[in-house]
Structures are given as structure tokens and as C-alpha cells.
User: What shape does this take?
Amino acid sequence: MARATDIHEKSKLISFRYQAYNRQGKLVKGTLKSVSEVAAERLILEKGLNPTFVEVAPSMFSLEEALPTFFKVKPRDVIIFSRQLAILFKSGITLLPAMEILLGQVATSRSFKKILESITYDLRSGIAFSKALAKHPNAFSNIYHKTVAIGEQSGSLGAVLEQMASYQERQSLIGQKVRKALTYPMMVMGVGVVVVVVLITMVMPQLLGMFTAMGAELPLPTRILIGLTNFVSANTLYLIIAGALLVAMVLTLIKHPRGRRLLDRLLLRVPLIGPTILLSELARFSRTLAVLVGTGMSLQSIMDMVPDSTNNTVVSDALKQVRDRLVLGEGLSAPMSRRENIFPPLVVQMVAVGEESNTLDYTMGVVADFCETGADEKAGAMVGMIGPLSTIGIALMVGFIALSVIMPMYTLTGAFD
Assistant: This one.
């Protein structure tokens, strides 16, 4: 009888996947089987781990799990969700009914709708809203759910949601501006490269073969182009393999922490791109600090989260060093002044003023506006420089090819005369 009961209990086991921190503070991932989510969390705690989220593991193959990049939650979905939930709070509707109202209205993608369904289910089960959000880091960042937790404790969840919506809108806008600034130059360069490749691989072999067959002495540019064309034609497969290996090597290097750090350091040193990236990251940091200080979160807790909000590992490392000195009682401005390559003097001075006047949220908002304006100007200047430079580069390449074709024609015409 007992054995039959055990078999019945095992048949009800559910697979859960989790993320947790071990005693050394390292993030670990895993899966386990349990009868419920609460029981699964208990098992994880018994292992000496501190779980950050636990959710039911998918029982069958899904495109969302296999290709998460193509099913990534859009920032716009989260922004609309935050704003509409804040409006419902102001209307006097409590959290769970508000989530049930928004469930069929906000989600424009399948993946985000599943997330909202999971959050609503957790709320019905008695789980705190911030903890339910923390289970979905792909949609709600660490800063988002920790700020929501403060709103829950202080009773100002609606105001916090409005702040996070505005914050995410600004962060998304910065990224969009940088991407738009790079779109035109990259398109010009891409089209130019395609044109040159087509000319060298398909058009030029026929024309240059005709010149060679006539036996006339060819000019130097034509001989160079013939050598290049012959090399590409004879080694096309090897060149494709070498290009694929180079791309794979770069992607592997970027995924490694040291490789990513090296790439980020190089990007910051590029004359046109570096200043734009740095100002964008400083704007992101300043806006994050301003929003979180405004919620009443302690400065040390804020600086524990801020390094994870940046996309550049060099800036993230600098913020971690500032955080470590902050813990030792040096404040913010003093450690930042030692990293002049990351934090300009004006930013350091504004931080010092905010610390002394106890208006850090306001001053960092001013710094964020200043850095965003500077990033816009740098991006505009970058487009103004890269566009003409890329056009000139493509024109030189196409001109060289045209010259290599036209010069032999005059030579051959003279030979026939």
C-alpha cells in the first residue's frame, strides 16, 4: 500500500527550473522535480542555496525556449504595462484585479502574455508582486523588481511604476538614437561592399580575361585588379571558410568576459564612436541613480544594482570600484574623480553638489539630461562624419575598378591604330 502511494506521488511530480545563489554568492542554475513550487523552493533551500526564481520547466519543445532571441520581450510592452497598471492603481483598483484586466489588453506578444499569466497566477497564490516579477528577468530587470519591492513596502506602488515606465522609455530612447545614428553609414558601407564583391567575382573576370587574351601591356592598376580577381576566384571557398571562422572567433571572444572587456575598451577609444557610447552609458547610469534615489532606496543598495544596468563592461567595472569605495565611506564623488577617463569633471562636480545638498536625485537627473543631449550631439556629428567618409571610401574603390577597366581600353585602342 505504501509502495502504491509512493508511485502515485511520483507520478504527480513536476519539473521546475531555478536560479539561486550559493554560499559563495555565485549564481547557479538547475532543475529539480517536486509536487509544487513551494516544495521546490524548500528543496532548494535545503541544498544551501538562496533561490531568486523558480518556475515550471517546459515539458516539451518550444520555439521560445530554443530561440529566445526571436521571442524576446519588447521594452515597449513593459513600458505600456507599467503605465496602464499605474493608471489602474490611481483609479482605486487593487493589484490582482488590475492584472486580470491588463492580461488581455497589454500583451502584444505571446512571450509577454505568458509572463503576465504566470505573474497573475503567482499573485493568486499569495506571492508578492516583486517576487513574481523577479522570476522573469528577461522582461523585468533586477532594478525594476527591486524598485517595485520598495514601492510595495512604502505603499507607493503606482508612483514607482510610473517612474519605472519613464525610466525605461528614456533608456530605450538612448539605444534607439545610437542605433539610428549607425544605420545609414552601415547601410552605405554594406551596399558598397556588395557592389565591389559582385564586380570582382562576376563582372571583372570576363572583361579582364578579354584584355589578357589580346596580349597588350596592361597598366599597373589593371594588373593589380587582375591579380586580386584571380586570387578571389581561385580561393572563393577558402575565403568563405576563413570569413566564417573569423566571425565565429569574434563571437566566441565577445562571449568570454576578457574578450568582451577588450572589445568594450577598444570601442571607447574609437574617435567618433567612443564618446557617443560613453555619454550614453553615463546618461543611463545617471538616470538610474536619479530614479532609485527618488524611491528612497539606500545608496549602497543602488550601487549594488547600477553596475548591472550598463552595457559596457569597462564602465561597469568603474562603477563597481566606486561602489567598493562607497562602502568604505568615501562617498560617490571622491572615487569617481579617480576615474577621469570614465567620469568627466563636470559629472563628478554635480555628484559632489548633490551629496552636499542632499539633492542627489535632482542633480543626477540634470546630469542625465546633460549626457543625453551630449550623446545626441555626438551621434549627429558621428553620422555627419561617417556618412561622407564611407561614401568617399566606396567611391575610391569603385573609381579604382573603373580606372582599371578604362585604361586598358585606351591602350588597346592605340595598339589597333
Remarks:
- Confidence is low (pLDDT under 50) at residues 1-11.
- The two ends are 109 Å apart (CA to CA).
- The chain is about 75% helix and 5% strand.
